[in-house]
Every structure is written in structure tokens, then in C-alpha cells.
């Protein structure tokens, strides 16, 4: 009986740790940026005013670092916190083909979901074993460039291996930083986040071709990635088409680059649903290096990518908990 009691207590403790770690990640994602800005502003009007002044001076001298590969930290990427977040859902990273460490890659990750937790845990931490699955390959999750202008927050983002999803940043990683770099881009972005609903498998990419052009210019192979279950983590409030709320949401997205999603979780409002998330990395699509690709080149490889993504989804949907009747919708 004492052994059973210990096992039960351990399970309760593990559940507690998972909940706290997931909340920590969500609060960091949503609130850490504003908190960092508020802290720096507050310190400016205290006896510690010299600290933010010195930091901001240093930040100006370090301004280009995020677009030059950032400043990743193996220590941060291996935090035990990420393992607890992984176990909460749980999350899994699946490899379907080798990635040659002597090449560079653009991994297109779908769908965006509300917070892209699957992409973050799979590619900005080692909780799902990316380094072991793809030895010699270094993953960089690319996200909004504005985040890297926020004091203090930028250090946290860079430590996880995140970089801006800007052309200078991508050019550096794919053409000026050696081989074995896997740039991860959540192609659908803010538009796709607004389509995030349980049971829905819709990706926005018919008009998203910039990543293909970048692949051609740098000679980086394209790799489709799909995170099954990402859209099931939260329940999002969808505003009626044409409503004031929907128009304000679209205006905010246009101005800020991301959409203010109104969502709820399983409990405590923000706690996500316990839904398995399986991120499947597909086979590379060989892309030739063409410094000045034509529109026909871009359209050709964009079509190949969409076909590969649809095939990847179809091949793994049943194993990842979907029925045969589920189809991927590309808009």
C-alpha cells in the first residue's frame, strides 16, 4: 500500500509540474514582452535607472545579432521545463527521412494553431529529441521580427534558437552560416491562426510563395512539416464575418503582424486541452540554387511543396488519430 501511495503522490506531483510549466510557457508567450517593456520603463524612474540605460546602449550595439543567427543556448533549450510541457499533451516528433547535415533546409510547419506550441517544443527546445533524430542539423524557429526589438525578451527568444523571419535573417542562415541549418517557418502565420479550430485541418499557403523563392535563391531543400493535434489544444472564439469584432481583429493583424485570438482552454481559462500533438517531418524536396529564379520556377516548386504536404498529411493522418475521411484543405 505504501508503494501505491508513493506512485500516486509522484503522479500528482508530476501533474502539478506539468501544469505549472505549461502555464509558464503560455504566460511567457503572451505576457513576457509587455512585462519586460514595463520593467525597463519602471526602472528608468528609480535609483536603478542606470541599469536600463546601459542595457539599451548595449542592445543598440547588438541590434543585428538576431538577424545573424542569434545567440542560442544549449542550456535553455534543454531546460526540464520543456520536458514537462511535452508530457502534458503529450507531444512527439516523428522523422520520416534523413536530413543531410551537409545541406540547408527550409521546414514549412503547418498549421499555425493558436500559439504554435508544437513548433516551439519540437524545434526551439530539445524536449522532442530533434538533435538526436537529425544529428548535425541545427533548427531555427523563425518568428516575428518585432519580438527581437523588445529589451530582455529578445535574449530569451534568441536563447531558444528563435530568429526573425526576415529576409536578412533567412539569407544569413541559409547562405552565410555554413551547412546543416534547418530554418523553420510557420507558413500560414496570423491568417492561419484565425482558422484554428478543433477538428479543422486548413492551411493558408496558396499565395505564400516567398519561402519558395528564398529556397531557390539559396539552394535550400524544402521540407513539409505537419503538427497533428495543434488545432485541438484550444477552443477559439470565431467572430461573425463582417462584425465589428472581426473587423477590429483584422485591422490589428494588419497593423501588428499577428492576430489577437480570443481562446479558452480546458480549465483555469488558459490551460490547454490534453490533446496529443504529433509533429511529422516529411521528406526533403530537392531545390536547385538559382540566384534569380523566375516566377515559373517559384510556381513549380511551390506546387511540388503543396503536393508533398498533402501527401504527408494523407499518409500519417490515421496513425495520428484522424479518420480516413479527414482531408487537408489548402487555401
Verbal overview:
The relative contact order is 0.15. This protein has 12 helices and 11 strands. The longest helix has 42 residues, at 2-43. The chain is globular and about 60 Å long. The model has no long low-confidence stretch (mean pLDDT 92). It has one domain (2-330). The termini are far apart. The protein has 331 residues and is of the alpha/beta class. Its EC number is 2.3.1.-. It comes from Esox lucius (Northern pike). One of its GO terms (biological process) is triglyceride biosynthetic process.
Summary?
With 331 residues, this protein is α/β, with parallel strands linked by helices. The chain has helices at 2-43, 50-61, 74-77, 80-88, 117-123, 130-133, 153-159, 167-176, 189-193, 210-218, 244-256, 295-316; strands at 91-95, 105-110, 138-143, 163-164, 181-186, 202-203, 221-228, 235-236, 263-264, 277-281, 329-330.
Summarize the helices and strands and which ones pair or pack:
Blueprint (H helix, E strand, L loop, with lengths): L1 H42 L6 H12 L12 H4 L2 H9 L2 E5 L9 E6 L6 H7 L6 H4 L4 E6 L9 H7 L3 E2 L2 H10 L4 E6 L2 H5 L8 E2 L6 H9 L2 E8 L6 E2 L7 H13 L6 E2 L12 E5 L13 H22 L12 E2 L1
Parallel strand pairs: 1-10, 2-5, 2-7, 3-4, 3-5, 6-11
Antiparallel strand pairs: 7-10, 8-9
Amino acid at each position: 500500500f505504501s508503494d501505491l501511495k508513493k506512485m500516486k503522490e509522484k503522479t500528482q506531483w508530476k501533474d502539478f509540474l506539468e501544469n505549472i510549466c505549461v502555464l509558464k510557457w503560455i504566460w511567457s508567450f503572451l505576457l513576457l514582452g509587455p512585462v519586460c517593456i514595463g520593467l525597463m520603463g519602471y526602472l528608468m524612474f528609480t535609483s536603478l535607472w542606470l541599469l536600463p540605460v546601459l542595457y539599451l546602449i548595449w542592445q543598440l550595439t547588438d541590434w543585428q545579432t538576431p538577424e545573424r543567427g542569434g545567440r542560442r543556448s544549449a542550456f535553455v533549450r534543454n531546460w526540464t521545463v520543456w520536458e514537462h510541457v511535452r508530457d502534458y499533451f503529450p507531444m512527439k516528433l516523428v522523422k520520416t527521412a534523413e536530413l543531410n547535415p551537409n545541406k540547408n533546409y527550409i521546414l514549412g510547419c503547418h498549421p499555425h494553431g493558436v500559439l504554435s506550441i508544437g513548433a516551439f517544443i519540437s524545434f526551439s527546445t530539445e524536449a522532442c529529441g530533434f538533435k538526436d533524430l537529425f544529428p548535425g542539423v541545427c533548427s531555427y524557429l523563425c518568428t516575428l521580427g518585432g519580438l527581437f526589438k523588445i529589451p530582455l525578451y529578445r535574449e530569451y527568444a534568441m536563447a531558444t534558437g528563435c530568429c526573425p523571419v526576415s529576409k536578412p535573417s533567412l539569407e544569413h542562415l541559409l547562405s552565410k552560416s555554413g551547412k546543416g541549418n534547418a530554418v523553420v517557418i510557420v507558413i500560414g502565420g496570423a491568417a492561419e491562426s484565425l482558422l484554428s479550430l478543433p477538428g479543422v485541418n486548413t492551411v493558408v499557403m496558396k499565395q505564400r510563395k516567398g519561402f519558395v523563392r528564398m529556397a531557390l535563391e539559396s539552394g535550400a531543400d524544402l521540407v513539409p512539416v505537419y503538427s497533428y493535434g495543434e488545432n485541438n489544444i484550444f477552443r477559439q472564439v470565431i467572430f461573425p464575418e463582417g462584425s465589428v469584432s472581426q473587423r477590429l481583429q483584422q485591422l490589428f493583424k494588419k497593423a501588428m503582424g499577428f492576430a489577437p485570438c480570443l481562446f479558452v482552454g480546458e480549465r483555469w481559462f488558459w490551460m490547454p486541452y490534453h490533446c496529443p500533438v504529433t509533429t511529422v517531418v516529411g521528406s526533403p524536396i530537392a531545390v536547385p540554387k538559382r540566384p534569380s529564379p523566375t516566377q515559373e520556377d517559384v510556381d513549380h516548386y511551390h506546387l511540388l511543396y503543396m503536393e508533398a504536404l498533402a501527401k504527408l498529411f494523407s499518409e500519417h493522418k490515421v496513425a495520428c488519430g484522424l479518420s480516413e475521411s479527414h482531408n487537408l484543405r489548402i487555401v
